[in-house]
Write a structure and sequence with these properties.
The protein is of the alpha+beta class and 615 residues long. It contains 23 helices and 12 strands. The strands form 3 sheets. It has a 7-stranded mixed beta sheet with strand order 2-3-4-5-7-8-9. Strands 10-12-11 form a 3-stranded antiparallel beta sheet. The chain has a two-stranded antiparallel sheet with strand order 1-6. A hairpin with a 2-residue loop joins strand 2 and strand 3. The longest helix is centred in the middle third of the chain and has 68 residues. The protein is flat and about 130 Å long.
Length: 615
């Protein structure tokens, strides 16, 4: 019995045909038409599903991972081509993250080593082929380590890592061999790998000048001393020029040490000149010449060591600068990607209010507890409304949403964090001796969407008019005696047409005249909505209005506007590095009302404030 009889390889080969077609083209698949690549994607995805469903039987683990790696590799190449061409194809963007596609691109850039022999590579290095040298320098400066990290990254799909590892192992051996042999065969190659071309030429010129200076040394004592001094001064000026742009304390220390060496040498040189002027003995002059030669060698050795140290520090600074530039470019690319994504979403969504907020599970629960606590603290003993004094007869708190359905599905901690739309019911009776005493029932309700917080952990949509209508109908049906004042607090605010409806004459006629008053509170922005003709709603407004630090809020708004002026949008995460989330979100909403900016939650980007004409 064969070891593979449990799986049919001929079946797998048939299913892999579209994938093999993509793998054969590699990154060049991007030149194909969008429709052609889309068809290939659908074929490969369908065949992959058929393989995973066991259509071809079961295989040993290693062989199974090999086949799955080919399917994943082909799909990843197609996903890369969609992104590279700036094409929106949601199945691909949902399946693969940027890091996975970057790892794929970095590995497949080395596919030239599939067709070149070692001698072919040596010829291209000898002729200084820019593409080949660029790949080798990039490899030398850490691509290998970056790819190894990616291969060990559990967030990258295991079959895709298997595909990339197989490819990279086949390239890496050839790259290492090419670098090793080129280092032996070409004197300039190691310097090329470690420093930029201009730096290499500067080093070569420095060495050439030093050799020429040594060759020009004269036998005569005074001439040799003057030559030494001239060479010293030229070296000093050259080093000063080279480090002029660097302000690091360590390099400044090296310069001071080199100047100290120069001073000591000049003092010793003057001593020798004095000695020579006094002595006529030929033997003595010869001894002094030997001493001068020794000092010359020591001085030059010291200067060379100092030059090497300064060059090393310079290269470190250059590498650090290059790394900073690289990070700057990466940040710029990331910002451009965020900008593109925001533009895409805004062009599709326009001014639709869905997705215009972002409140997390724990944040909603905190807002609910704060609201309930504030309401209970406001209604104690007696309150004065519309020039009348009312006694607080009762204050009751109760949950209006049963979150028991999520017991067992959520952890105990998360279940406790799900808001349960608590309501505080307060009964007020007018305090007077004679006549009918007016009664008011206050229903202060925190109203969110607990099911969303329980299922996805956050909510991004304002309350809709239908939500408020349902609450008003319930309030009107509950009227038995006196007036009901319904106070509704929303963590995600209210859609704009609710304000128009509450301010309308129809609302005044249908609800206020029937002893129902409504006050709406946007907890995040602090905005209050009520009918201006409703004296009861207006009387309760001070009890609901949130306290705020105007000076801090102005500072946050200035920060946000600077970012929007620069690039057209600002992300919540950026502002949270400097200010609290509560203050930043309130500033988001105020700028939205004042300047017409748009708030939006965008998957993959986060909660953003966008200029209306950003597109």
């Amino acid at each position: 019995m064969g070891i593979f009889e449990e799986g049919r390889t001929d079946c797998v080969k048939e299913l892999l045909k579209p994938a093999e077609r993509v793998l054969k083209e590699g990154l060049d698949i991007g030149v194909e038409s969008f429709s052609r690549r889309e068809r290939l994607w659908l074929q490969i995805e369908e065949n992959y599903d058929r393989y995973l469903d066991g259509e071809c039987g079961e295989f040993l683990r290693d062989l199974d991972m090999h086949f799955r790696g080919k399917f994943e590799g082909a799909l990843a190449i197609l996903a890369w081509s969609f992104r590279q061409n700036g094409e929106t194809y949601l199945p691909a963007s949902r399946r693969y993250r940027d890091r996975e596609l970057e790892a794929l691109e970095r590995v497949l850039r080395y596919n030239v080593f599939e067709i070149y022999s070692k001698e072919d590579v040596m010829k291209r290095i000898m002729h200084r082929d820019s593409n080949m040298l660029g790949l080798l320098r990039e490899y030398y400066h850490g691509v290998d380590r970056w790819i190894d990290d990616a291969l060990n990254d559990p967030s990258i799909k295991l079959p895709l890592r298997q595909f990339l590892k197989t490819k990279w192992d086949s390239y890496r051996g050839k790259v290492n061999a090419a670098i090793a042999e080129a280092t032996v065969r070409f004197d300039w190659f190691r310097d090329f790998l470690t420093m930029a071309g201009e730096e290499t030429q500067a080093v070569e010129r420095t060495y050439q000048r030093r050799l020429e200076a040594k060759e020009r040394e004269m036998d005569e004592l005074r001439k040799r001393m003057e030559e030494m001094r001239g060479n010293f001064e030229r070296e000093k000026e050259e080093l000063r020029r080279r480090i002029e742009a660097a302000k690091e304390a360590e390099i400044e220390k090296l310069i001071r040490e080199k100047e100290e060496m120069r001073r000591q040498f000049e003092e010793e040189r003057q001593r020798l000149i004095d000695e020579i002027s006094r002595m006529k003995d030929e033997e003595a002059r010869r001894m002094l010449e030997e001493e001068l030669d020794r000092m010359h060698r020591e001085m030059m050795a010291g200067i060379e060591a100092m030059e090497a140290e300064i060059r090393r520090k310079e290269l470190e600074l250059r590498e650090r600068e290059m790394e900073l530039r690289k990070r700057e470019l990466e940040l710029k690319e990331k910002e451009e990607g965020v900008s593109r994504k925001i533009k895409e979403v805004m062009s599709l969504a326009g001014k639709v209010e869905k997705g215009s907020r972002f409140v997390r599970l724990d944040e909603a629960r905190m807002l609910e507890m704060n609201f309930v606590g504030r309401m209970k603290s406001k209604f104690r003993g007696e309150v004065r409304i519309l020039g009348k004094t009312f006694r607080v007869e009762s204050v009751e708190e109760k949950a209006t949403f049963d979150k028991g359905r999520y017991a067992g599905k959520l952890s105990e901690r998360d279940l406790k964090n799900v808001p349960d739309n608590r309501r505080v019911d307060v009964k007020l009776r007018e305090k007077k001796l004679l006549g009918k005493k007016e009664e008011i029932t206050v229903k202060a309700l925190f109203y969110g969407r607990p099911e969303r917080y329980a299922e996805v952990g956050f909510d991004t949509d304002p309350l809709e008019l239908a939500d408020i209508n349902a609450l008003l109908v319930d309030a009107r049906d509950e009227i038995t005696n006196g007036r009901i004042v319904l106070l509704v607090a929303s963590p995600t605010g209210f859609e704009r047409r609710i304000a128009s409806y509450v301010n309308s004459n129809d609302f005044h006629r249908n609800f206020i005249s029937e002893n129902v008053s409504l006050v709406l509170l946007d907890i995040e922005s602090g905005e209050l909505i009520y009918n201006p003709h409703d004296e009861y709603a207006k009387a309760f407004e001070p009890m609901l209005r949130l306290e705020r630090d105007e000076e801090l809020l102005a500072k946050v708004k200035n920060f946000l506007e600077e970012r929007i002026t620069t690039r057209g949008y600002v992300r919540l995460e950026e502002a949270l590095e400097h200010f609290t989330e509560e203050t930043v979100k309130r500033a988001f909403h105020e700028l939205s009302r004042e300047k017409g900016y748009i708030t939006k939650f965008i998957d993959g980007v986060g909660y953003v404030l966008v200029k209306e004409r950003f597109l």
